[in-house]
Write a structure and sequence with these properties.
Length: about 800
């Protein structure tokens, strides 16, 4: 027992002794600093003012004998060193002041070179050096001992040249200033004195402008800059089609130049073939008010199968001009220069090397929203070691949105994506005027945005064949939907593509009411939207029956047969857009989920496609069945990694920066692709919609509206006080001995609101117990009592 009690006392003694040792070290450091400063002040009094008494006079003569005139600089060096140590306790710059002391000795030696000292032996030389230093006619003992052997070996000129070379090297090590920098200072000073500096700046600006305008001129400077360790800067306005290959590593000790690809637009895109027509304002396109939204009074599963929809009469459609969209504004400065980006890449290599990871930055690509550093690990370096440094790299770049892509698809490199300080908008006008969009044959081609490499990215809804979009509020989800709809308006006429829009939020898609592409007005009631989805299911079924009768497999084959034989009507493709799935799942989850799943599984060949958006990508909204049948997905910035895994089956979306920054995961792709979404403003959407409605008004299908107005009796309760399913619910409660709202929803196939009303009616009649939290309600009556109640 005594030994066990003695152990804590020993540990306390160790801690006390270590604390005392730390305190003693701190006091000793400060005492040393004070002594050094005091000695420096004493020497200053002796050397400059001769005010230190006999001791000071003796010190003055001794220092002059040792260093000659350089002795007057020693007090300054000592005071500076002492004060520096006193301010910074962790000072480890002894080499700095040692270098300064060495330079003083070199200067003393250079002073000695120009004196003639003759002696018979070594002691005679030292005595002569000492006396010459006191009279300031040489370099003192220190300078003489260094310079006298050099004079014997190299002569006066050789010794002076050697000492001057050593002095220049020490100065460069001390200050970090190179001879090239000093020469540049003198050249600039001379040009300013002679008035040639302004002309030089103007000539340099003109030369840079010529290099930006000619694509071929950048390749020659690239080779010269590579030899000097510099980097080529590539403007996306000059090389929009495809990036150049990564330059090969150079032989020798020179660092491999980093290729900088800057995708900011510095000038107006000269390849835009849309003329210089001014933008048409909304007032010039004003027409009558759009058709008011029609109430759709239908429930999900009670609609009789309608006949297959066909356009009764072809609509004359005029494609909106691109001048309705705002052209992309050139970026004026901002961000880091090519030199800063290259230096940042070099610093990144050094930071990784400090963590024991050897890697080389081969290319830096600066996109609209992020800058990607492409790393090539050295042999033997595992990629997982770089991925595990994500938090440390975020600290280095002073940002929290670091995303590491390991490896980059199609490249033997690891990508580190760092958000830019400012996000450059990608104009929808430039996307729609690109060759990829104009040459696409699909009528469902949409312009998504621009990738990190600066290339426009298009997608075909027909090949997706359905799209799921998710993102937090303000991340760019609604702008993406507007971009999708606007792309279809520019690509397809109403005879080729029809749309059904469901907007439970009311304010997002209402602007499109009245365009000829709509089958019915925009549906804004969440409960009535289930009826629209049920109509889509019945339309899909009827189309498949029609295909079977005509012995074709899909919509393209049917339309080709109609064109060939002239029998029948062409069927348009139908795009169903749901802006907020969460609201529909809260009101009628079973009906909505069933309809979406049936459409997602079978509607592709029928020419019907789903575009579903939600701001809450949780498992109760995006169920496993829905996600399994919708392979193509777009994720904007989300709040957590759980939401990212729900929408993409992988993390990464929580690292996005918002404002259109997205991860596009098309069907068949190995990994999501990071894009900056194309931006279209509300004013641009209004201009396009006004133009479309002015040239072709909407013709809603009356048959569809009538069938949507039919009321589903299985879901609609009676107008009286008692629900028609109340007796069936009471029978269930008596048989089971308990009842709950979720049990009624499952057994009777009703919604939550109606099941809750039935529970309230049963409680009011004292058939079940009152509310008990999450516990089921207990039955209070027997079957005999229930039968007696029925007889009354």
């Amino acid at each position: 027992m005594s030994r066990k009690k003695a152990q804590p006392s020993r540990s306390v003694k160790r801690k006390t002794s270590s604390t005392a040792s730390n305190m003693n070290n701190g006091v000793l450091h400060e005492l040393t600093s004070v002594i050094i400063t005091a000695v420096g002040c004493l020497l200053a009094l002796a050397m400059y003012f001769n005010a230190a008494g006999p001791v000071g006079e003796t010190l003055q003569q001794f220092l002059l004998g040792c260093f000659s005139m350089m002795a007057y600089l020693l007090p300054v060096v000592l005071v500076a060193y002492g004060v520096h140590r006193l301010i910074d306790r962790k000072l480890q710059a002894g080499w700095l002041y040692g270098n300064i002391f060495g330079m003083l000795v070199l200067l003393s030696a250079m002073l000695h070179i120009f004196t003639n000292v003759v002696a018979d032996n070594m002691m005679g030389y030292i005595e002569a050096f000492y006396k010459g230093g006191q009279s300031m006619e040489g370099g003192g003992v220190m300078g003489g001992l260094l310079a006298q052997p050099l004079l014997k070996l190299f002569g006066t000129a050789g010794a002076f040249l050697l000492l001057l070379t050593i002095l220049v090297i020490c100065t460069m090590l001390l200050t970090g200033i190179t001879l090239r920098t000093v020469a540049r200072w003198f050249v600039v000073l001379w040009m300013k004195q002679t008035g040639k500096w302004q002309q030089y700046i103007e000539d340099l600006d003109e030369q840079e402008d010529e290099q930006l305008e000619d694509v071929t001129t950048w390749r020659a400077p690239q080779k010269e800059q590579s030899k000097r360790g510099k980097i080529p800067v590539i403007d996306i306005a000059l090389e929009q089609s495809k990036p150049e290959p990564v330059p090969a590593k150079e032989k020798g000790k020179a660092p491999t130049p980093i290729r900088i690809v800057d995708h900011h637009i510095s000038k107006q895109d000269k390849e835009e073939k849309i003329g210089e027509v001014p933008i048409i304002e909304g007032e010039q396109l004003s027409i009558q008010d759009v058709v008011q939204n029609v109430d759709v009074k239908a429930e999900a599963m009670g609609i009789n199968a309608p006949s297959t929809f066909t356009e009764p009469m072809p609509i004359k459609y005029q494609t909106p001009p691109l001048t309705l969209l705002i052209p992309e504004k050139p970026v004026k400065g901002g961000g880091m220069s090519a030199e800063d980006l290259e230096q940042s890449g070099r610093n990144l290599e050094e930071r990784l090397r400090s963590f024991g990871v050897e890697a080389t930055v081969t290319q830096i690509e600066r996109g609209p929203a992020v800058t990607r550093y492409e790393l090539q690990p050295n042999p033997g370096v595992k990629v997982s070691r770089i991925v595990n440094l994500q938090t440390d790299l975020a600290l280095y770049f002073a940002t929290s949105g670091i995303r590491i892509e390991a490896p980059i698809p199609g490249k033997a490199a690891v990508g580190i994506e760092v958000p830019n300080k400012s996000v450059a908008a990608v104009s929808l006008r430039r996307m729609l005027s690109s060759e990829q969009f104009q040459n696409s044959n699909s009528k469902l081609t949409i312009a998504l945005g621009q990738d990190i490499a600066g290339l426009p990215v298009m997608a075909d809804i027909g090949k997706m064949p359905h799209l799921l979009i998710a993102g937090a509020t303000g991340s760019g989800k609604s702008v993406c939907i507007n971009t999708l709809i606007t792309s279809i308006l520019y690509k397809a006429n109403p005879n080729e593509v029809k749309m059904v829009m469901v907007d439970p939020k009311v304010v997002e898609l209402g602007v499109y009411n009245g365009i000829p592409h709509l089958l019915i007005p925009v549906v804004t009631d969440a409960r009535k939207a289930a009826g629209a989805l049920a109509w889509a299911v019945s339309e899909m079924t009827n189309r498949y029956q029609l295909f079977a009768d005509c012995k074709v497999r899909d919509l393209a084959g049917y339309n080709a047969q109609v064109k060939e034989t002239g029998q029948g009507d062409l069927l348009p493709q139908i795009v169903i857009i749901i802006d907020e799935l969460a609201d529909l799942m809260m009101v009628a989850p079973h009906e909505v989920e069933d309809s979406i799943c049936r459409l997602a599984q079978m509607a592709r060949a029928a020419g019907m496609h789903l575009v579903i958006a939600t701001q809450r990508p949780s498992v109760d909204v995006i169920t496993g069945i829905i996600k399994a049948n919708i392979p193509s997905r777009i994720s904007f910035a989300v709040s957590s990694q759980v939401d990212s895994r729900t929408i993409l089956d992988s993390g990464g979306a929580e690292k996005l920066v918002g404002k259109g920054d997205m991860l596009f995961y098309p069907v068949g792709a190995p990994k999501p692709v990071r894009l900056q979404g194309a931006f279209v403003s509300d004013k641009e959407v209004e201009n396009v919609v006004q133009f479309v409605k002015k040239n072709a008004m909407a013709k809603y299908d009356e048959d569809i509206l009538e069938k949507l107005d039919q009321v589903n009796e299985t879901e609609q309760p009676d107008a009286g006080d008692n629900d028609d399913l109340l007796p069936q619910a009471i029978e269930m409660a008596i048989d089971l001995g308990q009842i709950s709202t979720s049990m009624l929803q499952r057994r009777l196939k009703v919604g939550y609101a109606r099941a809750g009303r039935i529970i309230d009616q049963m409680e009011a009649r004292s058939i079940i117990t009152g509310f008990e939290g999450s516990k089921p309600r207990q039955t209070l009556v027997t079957r005999a009592e229930w039968q007696e109640m029925l007889m009354q």
